[in-house]
UniProtKB/TrEMBL annotation:
<dbReference type="Pfam" id="PF01738">
    <property type="entry name" value="DLH"/>
</dbReference>
<dbReference type="InterPro" id="IPR002925">
    <property type="entry name" value="Dienelactn_hydro"/>
</dbReference>
<dbReference type="InterPro" id="IPR029058">
    <property type="entry name" value="AB_hydrolase_fold"/>
</dbReference>
<protein>
    <recommendedName>
        <fullName>Dienelactone hydrolase domain-containing protein</fullName>
    </recommendedName>
</protein>
<dbReference type="GO" id="GO:0016787">
    <property type="term" value="F:hydrolase activity"/>
</dbReference>
<feature type="domain" description="Dienelactone hydrolase">
    <location>
        <begin position="39"/>
        <end position="242"/>
    </location>
</feature>
Length: 246
């Protein structure tokens, strides 16, 4: 299995000159980017380009501006998938790399450490938001009904595990697919039956390429910046409801 077709079609990441407003620090042994403050904590899982592109910091700062206490984790420890290996070729063994470097077993301790960091900073309720592959990690984080009150993300790549993730998630979900991303129907079919089903949010952005809220987003283009801003607004509103602030 390789990158999703939508991921491959979206092309290489876009170089951004954004200047982060937050701080780079540690959560346990994991490098994190922290922005914002308050009781509403959010753990952000980047796409496969990790901290190699600055859009993730801009997203974190937007969440902070909306009132959240944010920790974005660096799941690849400074060695994300690189622009020169995109789109992945068979010899790059993309899925092998992803399973070795960022399996759920490896990511869970990082997410737990980020939650602990947010608790130190005053957060008491938590959401987890991912991008592309990171949505699959957020969905798995949502299987812990004691920690997270809302999970999901933009342009999800769930690698065919949509129904499986939906069966196990214990909290409301937000999914914002882009052009070419899989239909959210299998997830909705399961979650509509849950007590929290009415709190879930699904909205397609078929006029945007996969990755537009993350490393593939060229926010110098007004239409992309507007769509990314809309998506971020949907996710922050979702989390405020899911975390019980509305």
């Amino acid at each position: 299995m390789a990158c999703s077709e939508a991921c491959t079609a979206a092309g290489a990441p876009v170089v951004s000159d954004y200047e982060p407003k937050g701080t780079f620090t540690k959560a346990g042994s994991t490098d994190v980017y922290h922005s914002g403050s308050g009781a509403l904590g959010v753990v952000i899982v980047p796409d496969i380009f990790g901290f190699g592109h600055k859009q993730v910091f801009q997203v974190a700062d937007r969440f902070a501006d909306a009132g959240f206490n944010v920790c974005a984790i660096d799941p690849f420890h400074g060695k994300p998938w690189t622009k020169d290996r995109f789109p992945p070729k068979p010899e790059h063994d993309f899925m092998g790399w992803l399973s070795r470097e960022a399996s759920w077993d490896k990511l869970k301790p990082q997410i737990d450490a980020a939650v602990a960091k947010l608790k130190e900073g005053g957060a008491s309720k938590f959401g987890c938001i991912g991008f592309c592959w990171g949505v699959s990690i957020a969905m798995q984080a949502g299987q812990d009904g004691h920690t997270f009150s809302g999970v999901g993300g933009a342009h999800p790549a769930l690698f065919g595990h949509d129904a499986d993730f939906a069966e196990k998630v214990q909290c409301p979900v937000v999914l914002l697919p882009a052009q070419g991303d899989a239909d959210t129907g299998p997830v909705q079919k399961v979650l509509d039956k849950r007590p929290y089903g009415s709190k879930c949010v699904y909205q397609r952005f078929d006029d945007q390429t996969h990755g537009f809220v993350a490393a593939r987003g060229d926010w110098t283009k007004p239409e992309v910046a507007a769509a990314a801003g809309k998506a971020i607004g949907i996710m922050t509103d979702f989390l405020k409801h899911a975390l019980g602030q509305h």
